[in-house]
Amino acid sequence: MSDPRGGTAARSGPAGGGAAPGAAPDRTPTPSPAPVRAGGVAGSLEVVVAVAPHYTVSVGPDLLTSLLPARVGERRVALVTDARVAAHHARRVSTALAAAGKDVLELVVPAGEASKSLGEYARLLGELASVAFPRDGAVVALGGGVVGDLGGFVAASYMRGVAFYQAPTSLLAMVDASVGGKTGIDLPQGKNLVGAFWQPRTVIADVGTLATLPEREFRQGTVEAFKHALLAAPDLLPALTAGWGTDAATSVLTEVVARNVAVKAAVVAADEREQGVRAHLNLGHTLAHALEAASGHTFQHGDAVAYGLVFAALVARARGFADVLRPTLDLLGWVAPAPLPNRAFGEVRPFMARDKKVVDGRLRMVLLEEVGRAVVVADLREGELAAAWNELLEVTA
Asked: What is the pTM of this model?
Protein backbone atom coordinates (compact mmCIF):
# COMPACT_ATOMS: atom_id res chain seq x y z
CA MET A 1 0.00 0.00 0.00
CA SER A 2 1.49 3.32 -0.99
CA ASP A 3 1.54 5.99 1.70
CA PRO A 4 0.74 9.63 0.80
CA ARG A 5 0.17 10.66 4.39
CA GLY A 6 2.86 13.24 4.75
CA GLY A 7 1.90 16.90 4.65
CA THR A 8 -1.29 18.83 5.09
CA ALA A 9 -1.36 20.79 1.87
CA ALA A 10 -4.83 21.91 0.88
CA ARG A 11 -6.09 22.13 -2.65
CA SER A 12 -7.85 25.10 -4.10
CA GLY A 13 -11.31 23.54 -4.19
CA PRO A 14 -13.32 20.52 -5.25
CA ALA A 15 -12.15 18.79 -8.39
CA GLY A 16 -14.52 19.16 -11.27
CA GLY A 17 -14.98 22.90 -11.28
CA GLY A 18 -15.59 24.02 -7.72
CA ALA A 19 -18.55 23.55 -5.39
CA ALA A 20 -22.04 22.97 -6.69
CA PRO A 21 -24.35 25.89 -5.98
CA GLY A 22 -27.28 26.23 -3.64
CA ALA A 23 -26.56 24.07 -0.60
CA ALA A 24 -24.87 25.51 2.48
CA PRO A 25 -22.94 23.03 4.63
CA ASP A 26 -24.52 21.97 7.93
CA ARG A 27 -22.03 22.58 10.73
CA THR A 28 -24.25 21.54 13.65
CA PRO A 29 -21.78 20.25 16.28
CA THR A 30 -21.70 16.58 17.21
CA PRO A 31 -23.09 16.39 20.79
CA SER A 32 -20.65 15.76 23.61
CA PRO A 33 -20.67 12.12 24.78
CA ALA A 34 -23.26 11.09 27.37
CA PRO A 35 -22.05 10.47 30.93
CA VAL A 36 -20.58 7.07 31.77
CA ARG A 37 -21.28 5.86 35.30
CA ALA A 38 -20.49 2.82 37.42
CA GLY A 39 -22.98 0.00 36.94
CA GLY A 40 -24.88 -2.03 39.49
CA VAL A 41 -22.74 -5.12 38.85
CA ALA A 42 -19.09 -5.09 39.93
CA GLY A 43 -16.78 -4.11 37.09
CA SER A 44 -19.58 -2.80 34.89
CA LEU A 45 -20.33 0.64 33.46
CA GLU A 46 -23.62 2.17 32.36
CA VAL A 47 -24.77 4.78 29.87
CA VAL A 48 -28.32 6.14 29.72
CA VAL A 49 -29.82 6.73 26.28
CA ALA A 50 -32.03 9.76 26.92
CA VAL A 51 -34.87 9.11 24.51
CA ALA A 52 -38.48 8.72 25.62
CA PRO A 53 -38.66 6.36 27.41
CA HIS A 54 -34.98 6.32 28.29
CA TYR A 55 -33.08 3.07 28.63
CA THR A 56 -29.76 1.91 30.01
CA VAL A 57 -26.84 0.28 28.23
CA SER A 58 -24.87 -1.89 30.66
CA VAL A 59 -21.32 -2.92 29.73
CA GLY A 60 -19.13 -5.40 31.57
CA PRO A 61 -18.26 -9.06 32.14
CA ASP A 62 -20.71 -11.90 32.90
CA LEU A 63 -23.79 -9.72 32.41
CA LEU A 64 -25.73 -12.18 30.25
CA THR A 65 -26.33 -14.42 33.24
CA SER A 66 -26.06 -11.94 36.13
CA LEU A 67 -28.08 -9.00 34.77
CA LEU A 68 -30.10 -9.87 31.66
CA PRO A 69 -32.61 -12.17 33.42
CA ALA A 70 -33.33 -9.46 36.00
CA ARG A 71 -33.82 -6.77 33.34
CA VAL A 72 -36.28 -8.78 31.22
CA GLY A 73 -39.64 -8.26 32.91
CA GLU A 74 -41.82 -10.32 30.57
CA ARG A 75 -42.55 -14.02 31.18
CA ARG A 76 -42.64 -15.21 27.55
CA VAL A 77 -39.34 -14.62 25.77
CA ALA A 78 -38.33 -15.25 22.16
CA LEU A 79 -34.54 -15.53 22.06
CA VAL A 80 -33.40 -14.68 18.53
CA THR A 81 -29.83 -15.67 17.73
CA ASP A 82 -27.72 -17.08 14.91
CA ALA A 83 -26.21 -20.54 14.59
CA ARG A 84 -22.67 -19.49 15.46
CA VAL A 85 -23.61 -17.44 18.52
CA ALA A 86 -26.03 -20.15 19.64
CA ALA A 87 -23.18 -22.66 19.79
CA HIS A 88 -21.30 -20.46 22.29
CA HIS A 89 -23.93 -18.65 24.32
CA ALA A 90 -27.58 -19.63 23.73
CA ARG A 91 -27.79 -22.52 26.19
CA ARG A 92 -26.44 -20.60 29.17
CA VAL A 93 -28.59 -17.55 28.38
CA SER A 94 -31.72 -19.69 27.97
CA THR A 95 -30.90 -21.50 31.21
CA ALA A 96 -30.43 -18.23 33.10
CA LEU A 97 -33.71 -16.84 31.74
CA ALA A 98 -35.56 -20.06 32.61
CA ALA A 99 -34.11 -20.00 36.13
CA ALA A 100 -35.63 -16.53 36.48
CA GLY A 101 -39.06 -17.93 35.60
CA LYS A 102 -39.12 -17.15 31.88
CA ASP A 103 -40.67 -19.37 29.22
CA VAL A 104 -38.04 -19.26 26.45
CA LEU A 105 -38.51 -19.94 22.74
CA GLU A 106 -35.21 -20.13 20.86
CA LEU A 107 -35.27 -18.89 17.25
CA VAL A 108 -32.02 -19.56 15.37
CA VAL A 109 -31.13 -18.08 11.98
CA PRO A 110 -28.10 -18.78 9.79
CA ALA A 111 -25.08 -16.61 10.59
CA GLY A 112 -24.39 -13.78 8.17
CA GLU A 113 -25.93 -10.79 6.40
CA ALA A 114 -28.06 -13.06 4.20
CA SER A 115 -30.37 -13.62 7.19
CA LYS A 116 -31.49 -9.98 7.06
CA SER A 117 -33.99 -11.02 4.40
CA LEU A 118 -37.72 -10.99 3.82
CA GLY A 119 -37.62 -14.79 3.95
CA GLU A 120 -36.04 -15.06 7.40
CA TYR A 121 -38.16 -12.18 8.69
CA ALA A 122 -41.35 -13.93 7.56
CA ARG A 123 -40.17 -17.25 8.99
CA LEU A 124 -39.57 -15.76 12.43
CA LEU A 125 -42.96 -14.05 12.45
CA GLY A 126 -44.53 -17.37 11.48
CA GLU A 127 -42.72 -19.17 14.31
CA LEU A 128 -44.09 -16.66 16.81
CA ALA A 129 -47.61 -16.87 15.43
CA SER A 130 -47.56 -20.67 15.37
CA VAL A 131 -47.03 -20.83 19.15
CA ALA A 132 -49.47 -17.97 19.85
CA PHE A 133 -46.67 -15.81 21.19
CA PRO A 134 -48.43 -13.06 23.16
CA ARG A 135 -48.34 -9.31 22.82
CA ASP A 136 -47.00 -9.06 26.37
CA GLY A 137 -43.99 -11.21 25.49
CA ALA A 138 -40.50 -9.98 24.65
CA VAL A 139 -37.92 -10.53 21.94
CA VAL A 140 -34.29 -10.76 23.07
CA ALA A 141 -31.69 -10.39 20.30
CA LEU A 142 -28.55 -12.34 21.23
CA GLY A 143 -25.85 -11.81 18.63
CA GLY A 144 -24.26 -9.31 16.32
CA GLY A 145 -25.70 -6.54 14.21
CA VAL A 146 -27.59 -8.85 11.85
CA VAL A 147 -29.42 -10.55 14.72
CA GLY A 148 -30.15 -7.21 16.37
CA ASP A 149 -31.52 -5.64 13.19
CA LEU A 150 -33.63 -8.67 12.29
CA GLY A 151 -34.82 -9.45 15.81
CA GLY A 152 -35.62 -5.81 16.43
CA PHE A 153 -37.71 -5.55 13.29
CA VAL A 154 -39.59 -8.70 14.29
CA ALA A 155 -40.25 -7.11 17.70
CA ALA A 156 -41.32 -3.83 16.11
CA SER A 157 -43.85 -5.43 13.79
CA TYR A 158 -45.20 -8.58 15.46
CA MET A 159 -48.65 -7.69 16.83
CA ARG A 160 -47.71 -4.06 16.09
CA GLY A 161 -44.87 -4.16 18.56
CA VAL A 162 -43.63 -6.19 21.52
CA ALA A 163 -40.90 -5.50 24.07
CA PHE A 164 -37.36 -5.72 22.73
CA TYR A 165 -34.03 -6.31 24.47
CA GLN A 166 -30.56 -6.19 22.93
CA ALA A 167 -27.79 -8.56 24.04
CA PRO A 168 -24.98 -7.81 21.56
CA THR A 169 -22.12 -10.31 21.32
CA SER A 170 -19.91 -8.64 18.69
CA LEU A 171 -17.88 -5.47 19.07
CA LEU A 172 -19.68 -3.91 16.10
CA ALA A 173 -23.06 -4.50 17.72
CA MET A 174 -21.90 -3.32 21.15
CA VAL A 175 -20.48 0.02 20.02
CA ASP A 176 -22.97 0.78 17.28
CA ALA A 177 -25.83 -1.41 16.06
CA SER A 178 -27.45 -2.24 19.40
CA VAL A 179 -27.91 1.41 20.43
CA GLY A 180 -30.34 3.79 18.80
CA GLY A 181 -33.40 1.78 17.83
CA LYS A 182 -32.70 1.15 14.16
CA THR A 183 -34.06 -2.21 13.04
CA GLY A 184 -34.58 -3.66 9.60
CA ILE A 185 -33.76 -6.00 6.77
CA ASP A 186 -32.16 -5.79 3.35
CA LEU A 187 -33.63 -5.98 -0.13
CA PRO A 188 -31.78 -7.06 -3.27
CA GLN A 189 -31.68 -3.36 -4.18
CA GLY A 190 -29.83 -2.30 -1.03
CA LYS A 191 -29.19 -2.56 2.70
CA ASN A 192 -31.71 -1.62 5.37
CA LEU A 193 -34.39 -0.51 2.91
CA VAL A 194 -37.17 -1.98 5.09
CA GLY A 195 -37.30 -1.35 8.81
CA ALA A 196 -38.49 0.69 11.76
CA PHE A 197 -37.22 2.67 14.70
CA TRP A 198 -37.88 0.47 17.74
CA GLN A 199 -35.89 1.24 20.85
CA PRO A 200 -34.86 -1.61 23.17
CA ARG A 201 -35.98 -1.68 26.79
CA THR A 202 -32.34 -2.21 27.76
CA VAL A 203 -29.02 -3.23 26.23
CA ILE A 204 -26.74 -5.75 27.93
CA ALA A 205 -23.23 -5.76 26.45
CA ASP A 206 -21.35 -8.65 28.04
CA VAL A 207 -17.73 -8.08 27.00
CA GLY A 208 -16.91 -11.67 27.93
CA THR A 209 -18.54 -12.75 24.67
CA LEU A 210 -15.82 -10.95 22.72
CA ALA A 211 -13.41 -13.75 23.65
CA THR A 212 -15.30 -16.03 21.25
CA LEU A 213 -15.21 -13.48 18.44
CA PRO A 214 -12.76 -14.12 15.59
CA GLU A 215 -10.06 -11.44 15.52
CA ARG A 216 -11.14 -10.46 12.00
CA GLU A 217 -14.65 -9.66 13.22
CA PHE A 218 -13.29 -7.79 16.20
CA ARG A 219 -11.38 -5.55 13.82
CA GLN A 220 -14.57 -4.97 11.83
CA GLY A 221 -16.18 -3.56 14.96
CA THR A 222 -13.12 -1.45 15.72
CA VAL A 223 -13.81 0.54 12.54
CA GLU A 224 -17.11 1.85 13.96
CA ALA A 225 -15.40 2.59 17.28
CA PHE A 226 -12.74 4.53 15.36
CA LYS A 227 -15.46 6.50 13.60
CA HIS A 228 -16.97 7.51 16.95
CA ALA A 229 -13.54 8.59 18.17
CA LEU A 230 -13.04 10.76 15.08
CA LEU A 231 -16.40 12.41 15.72
CA ALA A 232 -16.35 13.07 19.45
CA ALA A 233 -13.70 11.12 21.41
CA PRO A 234 -10.31 11.72 19.76
CA ASP A 235 -8.38 10.65 22.86
CA LEU A 236 -9.54 7.08 22.15
CA LEU A 237 -7.80 6.93 18.77
CA PRO A 238 -4.41 5.60 19.98
CA ALA A 239 -6.05 2.87 22.08
CA LEU A 240 -7.95 1.53 19.09
CA THR A 241 -4.93 0.21 17.23
CA ALA A 242 -2.06 -0.20 19.73
CA GLY A 243 -2.51 -3.30 21.91
CA TRP A 244 -6.19 -3.49 21.08
CA GLY A 245 -7.77 -6.88 20.40
CA THR A 246 -9.92 -9.69 21.75
CA ASP A 247 -7.27 -10.40 24.40
CA ALA A 248 -7.36 -6.87 25.82
CA ALA A 249 -8.01 -6.65 29.55
CA THR A 250 -11.67 -6.87 30.54
CA SER A 251 -11.50 -3.43 32.15
CA VAL A 252 -10.13 -1.94 28.90
CA LEU A 253 -12.82 -3.60 26.79
CA THR A 254 -15.49 -2.36 29.19
CA GLU A 255 -14.24 1.23 29.18
CA VAL A 256 -13.74 1.49 25.42
CA VAL A 257 -17.15 -0.03 24.64
CA ALA A 258 -18.89 2.18 27.21
CA ARG A 259 -17.23 5.34 25.92
CA ASN A 260 -18.26 4.48 22.37
CA VAL A 261 -21.80 3.89 23.53
CA ALA A 262 -21.66 7.31 25.20
CA VAL A 263 -20.85 8.95 21.86
CA LYS A 264 -23.71 7.26 20.07
CA ALA A 265 -26.15 7.69 22.96
CA ALA A 266 -25.68 11.47 22.93
CA VAL A 267 -26.28 11.67 19.18
CA VAL A 268 -29.36 9.44 19.36
CA ALA A 269 -30.80 11.49 22.23
CA ALA A 270 -30.35 14.67 20.20
CA ASP A 271 -31.86 13.24 17.00
CA GLU A 272 -33.67 9.94 17.52
CA ARG A 273 -35.26 9.74 14.05
CA GLU A 274 -32.23 10.86 12.03
CA GLN A 275 -33.56 14.21 10.89
CA GLY A 276 -30.36 16.13 11.60
CA VAL A 277 -27.18 15.55 13.58
CA ARG A 278 -27.57 11.76 13.65
CA ALA A 279 -26.32 11.88 10.07
CA HIS A 280 -22.85 12.38 11.59
CA LEU A 281 -22.88 8.68 12.50
CA ASN A 282 -22.81 7.99 8.76
CA LEU A 283 -19.25 9.29 8.45
CA GLY A 284 -17.59 6.90 6.00
CA HIS A 285 -20.86 5.20 5.11
CA THR A 286 -21.65 6.99 1.83
CA LEU A 287 -19.05 4.92 0.01
CA ALA A 288 -19.34 1.98 2.41
CA HIS A 289 -22.96 1.21 1.63
CA ALA A 290 -22.28 1.62 -2.08
CA LEU A 291 -19.42 -0.90 -1.89
CA GLU A 292 -21.61 -3.35 -0.01
CA ALA A 293 -24.50 -3.03 -2.46
CA ALA A 294 -22.23 -3.23 -5.51
CA SER A 295 -20.78 -6.49 -4.17
CA GLY A 296 -24.18 -8.05 -3.53
CA HIS A 297 -23.57 -7.62 0.22
CA THR A 298 -20.51 -9.88 0.21
CA PHE A 299 -18.19 -7.01 1.22
CA GLN A 300 -17.91 -6.90 5.01
CA HIS A 301 -19.30 -3.80 6.67
CA GLY A 302 -16.19 -2.89 8.66
CA ASP A 303 -13.98 -3.22 5.59
CA ALA A 304 -16.36 -1.03 3.61
CA VAL A 305 -16.49 1.66 6.31
CA ALA A 306 -12.69 1.64 6.64
CA TYR A 307 -12.42 2.42 2.93
CA GLY A 308 -15.27 4.91 3.29
CA LEU A 309 -13.42 6.82 6.01
CA VAL A 310 -10.36 7.13 3.77
CA PHE A 311 -12.59 8.25 0.88
CA ALA A 312 -14.23 10.91 3.06
CA ALA A 313 -10.79 12.07 4.21
CA LEU A 314 -9.68 12.45 0.59
CA VAL A 315 -12.77 14.50 -0.30
CA ALA A 316 -12.24 16.65 2.80
CA ARG A 317 -8.57 17.22 2.04
CA ALA A 318 -9.36 18.26 -1.52
CA ARG A 319 -11.73 20.88 -0.09
CA GLY A 320 -9.01 22.37 2.05
CA PHE A 321 -10.18 20.91 5.35
CA ALA A 322 -7.68 19.60 7.91
CA ASP A 323 -5.85 16.53 6.65
CA VAL A 324 -7.26 13.51 8.52
CA LEU A 325 -5.93 11.02 6.00
CA ARG A 326 -3.14 9.75 8.26
CA PRO A 327 -5.33 8.24 11.02
CA THR A 328 -7.75 6.72 8.51
CA LEU A 329 -4.92 5.07 6.60
CA ASP A 330 -3.40 3.85 9.88
CA LEU A 331 -6.76 2.24 10.65
CA LEU A 332 -6.98 0.71 7.19
CA GLY A 333 -3.56 -0.85 7.57
CA TRP A 334 -4.46 -2.29 10.98
CA VAL A 335 -7.81 -3.69 9.85
CA ALA A 336 -6.21 -5.31 6.77
CA PRO A 337 -9.46 -5.28 4.80
CA ALA A 338 -10.32 -7.29 1.73
CA PRO A 339 -8.89 -5.72 -1.44
CA LEU A 340 -10.85 -2.81 -2.85
CA PRO A 341 -12.53 -3.81 -6.13
CA ASN A 342 -10.73 -2.14 -9.04
CA ARG A 343 -13.90 -0.70 -10.55
CA ALA A 344 -14.47 2.45 -12.53
CA PHE A 345 -16.19 5.12 -10.46
CA GLY A 346 -19.16 4.95 -12.83
CA GLU A 347 -19.84 1.43 -11.58
CA VAL A 348 -19.96 2.54 -7.93
CA ARG A 349 -21.69 5.93 -8.26
CA PRO A 350 -25.22 4.60 -8.99
CA PHE A 351 -25.23 2.84 -5.63
CA MET A 352 -24.41 6.14 -3.89
CA ALA A 353 -27.62 7.53 -5.36
CA ARG A 354 -29.54 5.13 -3.10
CA ASP A 355 -27.93 6.59 0.02
CA LYS A 356 -30.50 7.57 2.64
CA LYS A 357 -28.87 11.00 2.96
CA VAL A 358 -29.91 11.90 -0.59
CA VAL A 359 -32.43 14.78 -0.46
CA ASP A 360 -34.20 16.05 -3.59
CA GLY A 361 -31.77 14.05 -5.68
CA ARG A 362 -28.78 15.73 -4.04
CA LEU A 363 -26.16 13.52 -2.39
CA ARG A 364 -25.13 14.71 1.07
CA MET A 365 -21.93 13.50 2.67
CA VAL A 366 -20.42 13.71 6.15
CA LEU A 367 -16.87 15.07 6.20
CA LEU A 368 -14.46 16.13 8.92
CA GLU A 369 -13.28 19.73 8.90
CA GLU A 370 -10.95 18.46 11.61
CA VAL A 371 -11.00 15.60 14.10
CA GLY A 372 -13.95 16.24 16.40
CA ARG A 373 -15.74 18.59 14.01
CA ALA A 374 -18.04 17.11 11.39
CA VAL A 375 -19.83 18.91 8.58
CA VAL A 376 -22.56 17.68 6.24
CA VAL A 377 -22.04 18.94 2.70
CA ALA A 378 -24.54 18.84 -0.16
CA ASP A 379 -22.60 20.67 -2.88
CA LEU A 380 -20.63 17.68 -4.13
CA ARG A 381 -19.37 17.67 -7.70
CA GLU A 382 -19.12 14.48 -9.71
CA GLY A 383 -15.55 15.38 -10.53
CA GLU A 384 -14.41 15.59 -6.92
CA LEU A 385 -16.05 12.28 -6.06
CA ALA A 386 -14.45 10.57 -9.05
CA ALA A 387 -11.08 12.10 -8.19
CA ALA A 388 -11.33 10.86 -4.59
CA TRP A 389 -12.27 7.38 -5.82
CA ASN A 390 -9.30 7.24 -8.16
CA GLU A 391 -6.99 8.46 -5.41
CA LEU A 392 -8.45 5.83 -3.06
CA LEU A 393 -7.60 3.12 -5.59
CA GLU A 394 -4.08 4.54 -5.81
CA VAL A 395 -3.34 4.80 -2.08
CA THR A 396 -4.72 1.33 -1.34
CA ALA A 397 -3.03 -0.45 -4.26
From this structure: 0.90
